[in-house]
Backbone:
């Protein structure tokens, strides 16, 4: 084994400089990045390590609170004939039973991105469409009693035929999941960029493959939690939930509840026990508990259990991709053609079909391929609804694209690394406009690969493979080159619509971030912002950013990211998802802190009789650049804004509270030609690995794994490394272990942690991590999103290595011993 | 013989982090729920309630066990230790907690209390555990954030401390 | 999920426990470590009227050599056993197999006898009991009896224990002079139930091979060292076990593991024998 932290110093590039020019003219006081860029230990840890976190289930609730449990469908598709709640209601301690009839009467179906009648309520109405679908809700004095009552509910069903496999469900004669839609194939869109037909006609070779990306979830260890209360006097709800955003879903919830947004106050706790996209999917339960609270006239608390979570919380969509390359004999790819069929399960829950379109502008990956054809199809099936899962469309894309690159190399008898290198976007091309519209901000992909393969790393892999093969062992090497998007364009999903439909609906673009920084009369600084951290360490990073701006220490900055839609800044892009923190929220906080700094500089310049430009903020003082003794304490300058507004410079608003908004102009709406810059930042990841497959057990051992990242400027390398390590472990899970499995009736076979296999420490080696920094010119801090890269790269890289080890063309995910054994076993088994 | 009616609540007492505590529990009440809801000690987390994820791991009579596979009534009279009892007497983080922070061994922190209790148990019995012993103990936990690298680094560091 | 309601009884003596079992029969459920039972209760897959907690019974907490056996009381945890410094000498197969049983945290609470009582066909301890030809000691108000592993293990999650009986101990034969032992298992992850578990004992010119995870209980075969058609023997065994497909493995995969790992486990046991 050879996994150690590599002490290679980060390679720094300054080919592009962070954009400051577009900012309004400002006072250019000196800012030294003393804390940003440092591997600062986390402030969050001080409470979490003591068991004093503030997770949703930890917070006190009203003594009047009742507890909910949900009855779920045992059938994949059935009519609900009747629900008999008499016995349940007669159980002492049971307060109410809520059914689909109630939610149909009191709420509207959730808004759907398509104009198809795919109605979903928070409980099944008339019909169940997947195993695990909520059918009824019991409220009782405690959770134990509520579960007792579930056992007494009697529901009769009339079973219906099921549509499970995406390709079969898309056939015309398949059983319909939503009869009113008239088809399961609810959306088909064709896109063409450049001249794909011409390129394919002129190609030396056409090389194709079909991949299936399986259903799974990076499920957090903390399950969903909702506490909902209805305030009769206000006609408004107050809900606490471990929701993660995007807050574009808040209007969806408010519309379902038939209230203006201000009457749905949604609070999120300070701590969340992981999310990885999953906790968006708590939103239908927020509506359900809200209605139940109103019906019961009491606060309702629901804590999802693991069985429910596995069965019904959330899955990534399954995607079947047929990808074809037009190739020259030298390995140059001149065109790509994608045919993507994506299964969203029983309902198209907002903001689906995000995964199918989130990468749309960047479908050509790290490669300079001018011609592109895409067919994107959406199918509904009798399986759990799909939603956000870390990577969000990226893993599906790259499993197809990077497997194709490996196949091109095999078919043309070329080195896969040469095929990658030959097609890379050249360093001089940045900012680079990809075929379908993505505007890649910065990078030097060839250099990144040179560093990763250098220092003998690739030679070592080859040596290991040669030695293993000489002994008859099954050893393979894999590569993957991946562009990692950061901060989604809020307009990308409208690419789903035709140009005409987009015009009717009105333009959608941008991605707004909002943050507030406050300085109190004693000079103490506090921060609130529009992110819902789930372990990323946002409090620490924001403290670093603000500390640099104000000349303070990070531990002097109080960051509390518990969020309250009634009081804190937010817009539709709010949340923590799609790597929007560093390119989004962090920028808004940076801007708010700069605004405060500018204001304080002007206040101090009055006191010190200096120009603001001549001041530096350091050591909790504001002082003359060339005479540190000429200074005013930070706290004293702050106090002026509170205690003596009359002495403030002309035109200056009193108080010291600045809210900043940020939306990057690069995130434009889709063009008439369906070009869309789907994200703001585009990092680069290059992975390579060696694996060995056991000839008897068919288990895959990761022998060595190298992962190279360019995420622009790293705000906190310790935390950035944590993101890489976590995404890598999840990528290993996708590659080798994790899958939601249904049987032929649609029953769910992976409803405990004994059957849904999350990798343990024994399955996850430590990868060798390398960094380089190509700062983004589109973000003031030069930073890019960095949280998803290995979710995109690792499954493809490991699959390429296994394909190389076994000489197979179609390694399916997850590459379980059962699957690999079927490929490896001799055709004829010894007879009995 | 202790006989407890399943429909009634019974007085349960034990030592929690060195202090005597007591509360009321039906026989079926899980110890995790007793700690969190009856005693208000929410540091012990619930992840799966079927004994696999390890988030609820606590120490009972000096052994790391799954809190979710333990009834509150079974803890009567025992010595229970949870994450809230780990810090040094002056309130400072102890060596294992400090190592976790230094090596970024936690992100969301949800699985962390269980891991800390398992490793506390390991170091109490085996001050110089081998790599295999650390792997065996950490292998009894699911963490979705860290890829386990920081956890292993922290455990190795504590194992190597004089 | 939360367990259904049950009464809870914690007897102070074995006799009290037996009396409760005599009264309640199959409406009573014995709990020792509860590492399988509690999960089943939480998932509401079990619903006893009364839970009989024997985990604190001193009389069942001993582990001692009696005659040619290591007699392990019903309240002895897997960790207690693994902590015995002489285990590798006394019952080497247990020392080899126990680290594969769950995780450290479940071994701290789970008992040896509880695992035998649960009768999961893929678990390690029933396989060891069968491979070593151990016994289970059952007691009721009617008396005490000892069953050989082959009599006790009756199928998938089922044993020959009568509803009023308490397993008070398991008896694992001590290592016989010159015997060699080996254990191997294939699981998806370390600590998971075995897809296939293999235990081999080589002694006095004979090899005993036990297989878990395929049939509905551990299956044992025995043959002399000098047989040269080991591959054929294992192939026949692989087919005899009537393997089935499931989520984690195909029937063919299981048979191939027996064919592929079997010779290695046997060779390992033989190499330890002298």
Residues:
């Amino acid at each position: 084994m050879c996994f150690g932290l590599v002490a290679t110093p980060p390679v720094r590039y300054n080919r592009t400089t962070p954009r400051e020019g577009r900012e309004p003219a400002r006072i250019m006081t000196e800012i030294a990045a003393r804390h940003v860029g440092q591997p600062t230990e986390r402030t969050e840890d001080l409470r979490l390590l003591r068991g004093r976190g503030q997770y949703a289930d930890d917070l006190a609730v009203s003594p009047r609170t009742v507890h909910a449990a949900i009855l779920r469908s045992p059938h994949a598709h059935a009519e609900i004939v009747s629900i008999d709640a008499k016995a349940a209601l007669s159980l002492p301690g049971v307060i109410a039973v809520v059914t689909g009839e109630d939610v149909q009467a009191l709420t509207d179906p959730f808004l759907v991105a398509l104009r198809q009648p795919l109605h979903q309520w928070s409980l099944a109405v008339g019909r169940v469409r997947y195993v695990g679908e909520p059918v009824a809700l019991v409220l009782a004095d405690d959770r134990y009693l509520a579960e007792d009552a579930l056992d007494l509910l009697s529901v009769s069903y009339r079973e219906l035929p099921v549509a499970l496999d995406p390709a079969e469900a898309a056939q015309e004669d398949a059983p319909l999941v939503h009869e009113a839609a008239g088809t399961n194939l609810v959306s088909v869109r064709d896109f063409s960029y450049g001249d794909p037909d011409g390129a394919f006609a002129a190609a030396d070779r056409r090389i194709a493959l079909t991949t299936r990306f399986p259903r799974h979830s990076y499920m957090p260890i903390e399950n969903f939690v909702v506490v909902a209360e209805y305030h009769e006097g206000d006609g408004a709800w107050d809900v606490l939930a471990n929701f993660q955003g995007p807050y574009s879903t808040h209007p969806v919830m408010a519309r379902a509840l038939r209230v203006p947004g201000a009457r749905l106050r949604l609070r999120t706790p300070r701590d969340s026990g992981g999310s990885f996209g999953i906790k968006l999917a708590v939103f239908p339960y927020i509506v359900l508990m809200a209605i139940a609270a109103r019906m019961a006239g009491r606060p309702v608390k629901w804590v999802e259990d693991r069985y429910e979570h596995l069965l019904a919380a959330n899955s990534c969509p399954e995607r079947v991709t047929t990808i074809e390359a037009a190739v020259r004999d030298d390995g140059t790819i001149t065109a790509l053609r994608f045919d993507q069929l994506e299964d969203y399960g029983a309902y198209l829950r907002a903001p689906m079909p995000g995964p199918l379109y989130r990468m749309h502008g960047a479908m050509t990956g790290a490669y300079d391929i001018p011609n592109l054809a895409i067919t994107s199809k959406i199918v509904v099936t009798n399986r759990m609804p799909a939603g956000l899962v870390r990577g969000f469309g990226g893993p599906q894309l790259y499993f197809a694209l990077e497997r194709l690159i490996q196949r091109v190399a095999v078919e043309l008898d070329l080195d896969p690394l040469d095929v990658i290198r030959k097609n890379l976007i050249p360093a001089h091309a940045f900012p680079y406009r990809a075929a379908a519209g993505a505007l890649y901000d910065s990078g030097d992909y060839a250099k990144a690969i040179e560093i990763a393969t250098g220092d003998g790393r690739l030679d070592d892999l080859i040596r290991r493979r040669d030695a293993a093969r000489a002994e008859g062992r099954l050893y393979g090497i894999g590569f993957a080159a991946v562009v990692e998007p950061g901060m989604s364009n809020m307009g990308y999903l409208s690419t789903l619509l035709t140009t005409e439909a987009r015009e009717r609906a009105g333009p959608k673009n941008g991605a707004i971030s909002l943050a507030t920084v406050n300085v109190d009369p004693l000079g103490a600084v506090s921060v609130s912002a529009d992110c819902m951290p789930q372990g990323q360490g946002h409090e620490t990073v924001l403290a670093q950013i603000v500390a640099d701006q104000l000349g303070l220490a990070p531990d002097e900055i109080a960051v509390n990211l518990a969020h309250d839609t009634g009081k804190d800044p937010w817009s539709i892009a709010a949340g923590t998802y799609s790597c929007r923190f560093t390119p989004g929220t962090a920028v808004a906080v940076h801007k708010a802190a700069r605004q405060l700094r500018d204001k304080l500089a002007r206040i101090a310049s009055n006191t010190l009789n200096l120009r603001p430009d001549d001041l530096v903020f350091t050591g909790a003082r504001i002082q003359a650049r060339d005479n540190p003794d000429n200074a005013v304490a930070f706290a004293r300058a702050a106090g002026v804004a509170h205690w003596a507004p009359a002495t403030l410079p002309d035109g200056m608003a009193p108080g010291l509270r600045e809210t900043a908004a940020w939306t990057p102009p690069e995130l434009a709406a889709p063009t008439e030609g369906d070009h869309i810059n789907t994200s703001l930042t585009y990092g680069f990841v290059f992975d390579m690995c060696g694996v060995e497959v056991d000839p008897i057990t068919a288990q895959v051992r990761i022998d060595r794994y190298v992962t190279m990242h360019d995420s622009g400027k790293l705000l906190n390398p310790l935390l950035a490394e944590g993101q890489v390590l976590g995404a890598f472990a999840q990528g290993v899970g996708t590659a080798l272990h994790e899958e939601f499995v249904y049987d032929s009736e649609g029953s769910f076979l992976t409803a405990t942690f004994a059957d849904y296999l999350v990798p343990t420490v024994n399955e996850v080696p430590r990868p060798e991590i390398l960094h380089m920094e190509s700062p983004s010119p589109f973000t003031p801090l030069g930073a890019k999103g960095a949280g998803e890269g290995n979710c995109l790269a690792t499954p493809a890289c490991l699959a390429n290595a296994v394909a190389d080890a076994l000489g197979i063309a179609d390694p399916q995910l997850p590459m379980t011993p059962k699957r690999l054994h079927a490929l490896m076993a001799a055709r004829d088994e010894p007879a009995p | 013989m202790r006989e407890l009616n399943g429909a009634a609540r019974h007085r349960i007492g034990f030592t929690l982090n060195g202090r005597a505590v007591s509360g009321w529990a039906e026989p079926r009440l899980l110890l995790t729920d007793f700690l969190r809801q009856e005693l208000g000690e929410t540091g012990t987390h619930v992840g799966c309630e079927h004994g696999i994820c390890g988030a609820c791991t606590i120490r009972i009579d000096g052994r790391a066990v799954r809190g979710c596979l333990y009834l509150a009534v079974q803890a009567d009279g025992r010595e229970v230790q949870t994450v809230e009892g780990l810090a040094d007497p002056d309130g400072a983080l102890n060596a294992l907690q400090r190592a976790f922070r230094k090596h970024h061994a936690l992100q969301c922190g949800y699985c962390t209390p269980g891991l800390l209790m398992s490793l506390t148990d390991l170091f109490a019995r085996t001050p110089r555990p081998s790599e295999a012993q650390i792997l065996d103990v950490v292998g009894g936990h699911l963490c979705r954030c860290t890829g386990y690298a920081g956890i292993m680094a922290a455990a190795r560091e504590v194992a190597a401390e004089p | 999920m939360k367990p259904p309601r049950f009464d809870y009884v914690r007897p102070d003596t074995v006799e009290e426990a037996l009396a409760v079992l005599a009264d309640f029969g199959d409406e009573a459920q014995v709990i020792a470590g509860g590492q399988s039972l509690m999960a089943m209760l939480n998932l509401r897959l079990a619903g006893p009227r009364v839970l009989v907690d024997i985990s604190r019974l001193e009389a069942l907490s001993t582990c001692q050599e009696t005659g040619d056996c290591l007699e392990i009381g019903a309240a002895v945890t897997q960790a207690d056993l693994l902590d015995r410094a002489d285990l590798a000498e006394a019952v080497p197969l247990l020392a080899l197999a126990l680290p594969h049983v769950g995780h450290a945290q479940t071994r701290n609470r789970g008992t040896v006898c509880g695992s035998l009582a649960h009768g999961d066909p893929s678990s390690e301890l029933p396989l060891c009991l069968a491979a070593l030809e151990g016994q289970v000691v059952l007691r009721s108000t009617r008396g005490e009896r000892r069953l050989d592993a082959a009599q006790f293990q009756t199928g998938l999650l089922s044993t020959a224990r009568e509803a009023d009986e308490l397993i008070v101990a398991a008896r694992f034969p001590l290592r016989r002079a010159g015997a060699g032992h080996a254990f191997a298992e294939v699981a998806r992850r370390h600590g998971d139930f075995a897809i296939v578990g293999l235990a081999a004992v080589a002694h006095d010119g004979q090899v005993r091979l036990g297989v878990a995870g395929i049939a509905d209980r551990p299956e044992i075969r025995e043959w002399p060292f000098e047989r040269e058609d080991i591959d054929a023997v294992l192939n026949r065994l692989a087919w005899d076990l009537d393997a089935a497909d499931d989520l984690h493995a195909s029937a063919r995969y299981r048979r191939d593991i027996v064919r592929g790992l079997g010779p290695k486990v046997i060779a390992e046991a033989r190499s330890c024998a002298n």
